[in-house]
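Ticket #4471: structure output looks truncated?

Reporter: J.K.
Steps to reproduce: submitted the chain below (100 residues) through the standard prediction queue, then opened the result file.
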Amino acid sequence: MKNSTFKNKTIITQLNAEFYFIDFNAEEKRTIRFNNQTFNYKPTGNTNGVNELAIALGTINNQITYPIVCVINPENEIIFQDTSYRNAKDFEVIFAKLKD
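Returned output as attached by the reporter:
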């Protein structure tokens, strides 16, 4: 989706106008402050790991899922998570539902 859906001019325009879009690498090693909390990198092996923010935003049914699209509301509550590949037309439908 990074190389297709999120390069679509209509989708990018809508994301920039109505959302704060962040492309986040779940393996980010830097400490991140978000919503008055600190999220650190947690090694899961010798050469890999995951940032706690990715765990907080990307966990569905007690399992972290990649890739994930996560939408949070102004109160920083998750209101939408999706793990499926979505094309531009799919996102137009999702945007319409999120506005309601």
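Triage note (M.O.): checked the attachment and the full token line is present. The mean pLDDT is 92.
Status: closed, working as intended.
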